[in-house]
Design a protein that fits this description.
The protein is an alpha+beta fold. Strand 6 and strand 7 form a beta hairpin. The protein starts with 6 loop residues before the first helix and ends in a 7-residue tail after the last strand.
């Protein structure tokens, strides 16, 4: 059946009329923040502890907007007689967001879960050169990354949570050790001050009859 002449125009006018009858809603940004989906591609966050400087993200980036610098350090043998090993230590990790096209390839190819999408989007700059953000800023954005979806009760814990918990435990242990060492030093200082205040009378005991007992071979003085 051939279309009725003017039916397309009528459908278009119907859409226009429905739109005219709806109430206009204006997004009051920046006074009211928008409700973004949890996996919004806003900015890339860096979880530095997971980065092994494998350079996969920089090599696979189609825009070459990731800059990584590192150096090698020698790790002592874990057991006596073992071999020393070398590992890469991250010196610089920067992303030029004036070149980034938010394709997410760097996040997908990272084998150690060091890069994540953050919904943060308010990082505009007046100078394009300021859009190259270093690892400190990327690490700050890491804490705005939403939690991964809930897993089955019998599933393994996400790698990023395990790595974060391990890092937090190491930091807590280091802080506790530093606090114990400081307390020991303070106690030693107080004991030394007490001995210095006692002077030459330290190590002597006075009996009930007024005689002084010295803890030496001379017996009673």
């Amino acid at each position: 059946m051939p279309p009725i002449p003017g039916s397309g125009l009528a459908k278009g006018l119907a859409v226009t009329l429905r739109t005219l009858t709806k109430k206009t809603v204006t997004a009051q940004y920046p006074d009211v923040q928008p409700e973004l989906p949890p996996r919004t591609r806003g900015v890339i966050g860096l979880f530095e502890e997971n980065c092994t400087v494998c350079m996969l993200c920089a090599r696979e980036c189609p825009d070459w907007c990731i800059y990584i610098d590192s150096h090698k350090e020698t790790v002592p043998a874990a057991v006596p007689g073992g071999r020393e090993r070398s590992r890469n230590v991250l010196d610089r990790f920067a992303i030029d967001f004036s070149l980034c096209m938010y394709c997410g390839i760097c996040i997908e190819v990272c084998p150690f879960d060091a890069l994540f999408w953050s919904p943060e989007f308010e990082y505009a700059e007046t100078d394009i050169r300021d859009l190259t953000h270093e690892r400190d800023k990327l690490r700050e954005w890491m804490w705005t990354v939403p939690e991964p979806p809930a897993l089955d009760p019998g599933a393994e814990e996400p790698k990023e949570l395990a790595a974060a918990r391990k890092t937090a435990d190491k930091l807590a242990a280091a802080q506790e050790a530093a606090a114990q060492e400081a307390a020991a030093q303070e106690a030693a200082a107080q004991e030394a001050a007490a001995q210095q205040a006692a002077g030459p009378e330290a190590g002597q005991e006075t009996g009930q009859d007024g005689t002084t007992d010295t803890h030496g071979e001379g017996g009673t003085a």
